[in-house]
Amino acid sequence: MKEKRFGIDIDGTVTCPTSLVPFINDAFSLNITLEDIKKYDLSEALNIPPDKMRDWFDKTEPEIYASSPLAEGAGAVLSKWQHQFHLLFISARRQHLFDITETWFKDKSIHYDHIELIGSHNKLEAAKQYEVDIFFEDKHDNAVMLAEELCIPVILFNTPYNQDPIPKNVIRVNNWYEADSWVNQWCKTKEIVPLART
């Protein structure tokens, strides 16, 4: 019986956060790695004019999403969780990208109970609507807002662009195996605890 409802971001969370990097390097004649992206806003992080970055992203978005690799451990952990939890994917992607998104999930054999493309980074209303018990995210301010407004644990996947301080109920993990370890502990105790490092 599935009881817990998991809200899960897609980009940089289920997909590898490096997905954008080859496309950025090719389009802007750069030679960066993920470590060079210290801010979530790519225009600010790479000192590229916002309009130029937006135009490029709008054109390239479908190709990026169609070819994004899975984040480390995402396939194995989500495959395990599909039998235990409701998996509700809530993304800032826009609705016209639904078919590409759904095809990617099928190609990667990722089970989903629902995919919600809200076209905005404000996931609070969707998280409330679907009554999620825990959220998985890579965007720092999203993680903090969801944790504080909904009083739920939020798993924040560690990246160079989300290093600001976090409140107690936002838990940093380096990969999906660490997320799974924390969820196992949380399901047993229902307490917000720091991830035990081995």
From TrEMBL:
It comes from the Bacteria. Transmembrane segments: none annotated. GO terms for molecular function: hydrolase activity. Its EC number is 3.1.3.-. Keywords: Hydrolase. Coiled coil: none annotated. PANTHER family: NUCLEOTIDASE YQFW-RELATED. Belongs to the 5'(3')-deoxyribonucleotidase family. This is Nucleotidase. The lineage of its organism: Bacteria, Bacillati, Bacillota, Bacilli, Bacillales.
